């Protein structure tokens, strides 16, 4: 266990200027640091970091506390002050710790686990980096939302998925993709991003956010009868996903953005609910040629920013809502055939 105040002083990582073939790890991505730093500073008593892995370039001596038995495996490692410590895995944690210490020096007495290896050369260090990251897999966003108890929006979305009639029993809580045979209509991550878009920039409390989200998605549910048919098991979720777009992430996200425009004008459901009835006229079937180039590219769903914007535009037009400057530029390019 190493005190955090020592992390920036004794642990090094390769210079960015070095060519990849003579570095022992990836270039530091400074864009990741603000979020990591804020995480430490905002959660000083319950942050969680995995161990840093470092190589020691120098003479290492192990002094056991006994000459035989279990004591032979317990003792002290002596490393000369001139030794060089190179981080094999954890350079972003190291840089974030350095920044966090500037904001809150008291964090210096906190400790982080470090795993040491003897540095036997560049090839060995590079192989360690490759081995440490070979099987690293980022967990699905859905399970991140399910397990995140710091994020208020994640808590709101979990309640939506588990309690709201619109989503109850229809949301895949762990995976961010649905298998062909899945009986679910939505993924938790798609509901999260859609609700995030819905509530973006609204000055409301957590309780108000929950109420608004429930009211909005309930109103949307009334414009898409297929969702209810799936809940009543009159249609299969698989067939609905195959034949229609309204349960896909791009459609939910677009509906969230459209809803945000309505909520910015009024937070009272009775003011915007009547407008949403116009969405009943939207033909969500994949065979609708209007979707090609918007939500579909060569018949396949596209989640790019451009396609999301064009899908939002299509829904805005059904609701007779004015397009923003960015949306209008995207629409003009689409109509010219540039997209």
**How many structurally independent domains?**
2
Structural class from helices and strands? alpha/beta
The run of helices and strands is EHEHEEEEHEEHHHEEHHHHHHEEHH
Radius of gyration (CA) equals: 26 Å
Strand arrangement across the biggest beta sheet: 2-6-3-8
Q: Compute the number of helices.
A: 14
Instruction: Write down how many β-strands occur, each being a DSSP E stretch of 2 or more residues.
Output: 12
The major sheet is characterized as: 4 strands, mixed
The portion of residues forming beta strands comes to 5-15%
What general form does the structure show? elongated
| Helix content estimate | 40-55%
Overall pLDDT level: 90
**Low-confidence parts lasting 5 or more residues at pLDDT below 50?**
none
Separation of the first and last Cα atoms: 54 Å
Structure description:
This protein has 339 residues and is of the alpha/beta class. The chain has 2 domains: 2-134, no CATH class; 141-336, no CATH class. Helix content is 45%, strand content 12%. The chain contains 14 helices and 12 strands. The protein has helices at residues 7-10, 33-42, 91-103, 122-134, 141-147, 152-163, 188-199, 206-223, 225-231, 237-243, 249-265, 269-276, 305-318, 325-336; strands at residues 2-3, 11-12, 52-57, 61-64, 75-78, 84-89, 111-112, 114-118, 171-172, 186-187, 296-297, 300-301. The strands form 5 sheets. It has a 4-stranded mixed β-sheet with strand order 2-6-3-8. A hairpin with a 2-residue loop joins strand 11 and strand 12. Helix 2 (33-42) crosses helix 3 (91-103), helix 6 crosses helix 8 (206-223) and helix 11 (249-265) packs across helix 13 (305-318). The chain is elongated and about 80 Å long. The chain starts with a strand and ends with a helix. The model has no long low-confidence stretch (mean pLDDT 90).
């Amino acid at each position: 266990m190493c005190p955090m105040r020592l992390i920036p002083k004794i642990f090094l990582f390769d210079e960015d200027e070095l060519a990849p073939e003579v570095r022992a790890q990836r270039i530091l991505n400074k864009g990741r640091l603000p979020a990591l730093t804020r995480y430490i500073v905002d959660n000083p008593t319950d942050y969680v970091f995995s161990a840093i892995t470092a190589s020691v370039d120098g003479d290492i001596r192990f002094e056991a506390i006994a000459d035989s038995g279990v004591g032979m495996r317990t003792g002290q490692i002596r490393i000369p002050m001139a030794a060089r410590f190179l981080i094999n895995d954890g350079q972003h944690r190291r840089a974030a710790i350095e920044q966090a210490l500037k904001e809150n020096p008291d964090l210096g007495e906190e400790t982080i686990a470090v795993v040491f290896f003897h540095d036997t050369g560049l090839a060995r260090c590079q192989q360690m980096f490759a081995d440490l990251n070979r099987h690293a897999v980022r967990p699905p966003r859905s399970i991140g939302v399910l397990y995140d108890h710091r994020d208020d929006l994640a808590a709101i979305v979990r309640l939506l998925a588990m309690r709201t009639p619109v989503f109850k029993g229809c949301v895949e809580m762990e995976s961010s993709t649905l298998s062909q045979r899945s009986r679910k209509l939505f993924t938790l991550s798609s509901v999260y991003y859609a609700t995030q878009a819905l509530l973006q920039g609204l000055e409301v409390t957590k309780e108000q956010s929950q109420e608004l989200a429930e009211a909005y998605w309930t109103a949307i549910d009334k414009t898409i009868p297929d969702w209810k048919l799936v809940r009543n098991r009159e249609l299969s979720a698989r067939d609905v996903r195959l034949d229609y777009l309204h349960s896909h992430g791009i459609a939910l996200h677009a509906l969230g953005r459209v809803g945000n425009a309505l909520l910015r004008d009024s937070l009272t459901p009775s003011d915007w609910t009547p407008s949403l009835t116009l969405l009943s006229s939207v033909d969500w079937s994949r065979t609708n040629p209007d979707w090609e180039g918007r939500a579909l590219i060569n018949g396949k769903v596209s989640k790019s920013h451009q396609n999301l914007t064009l899908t939002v535009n299509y829904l805005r037009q059904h609701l007779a809502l004015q397009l923003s400057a960015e949306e209008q530029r995207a629409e003009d390019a689409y109509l010219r055939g540039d997209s």
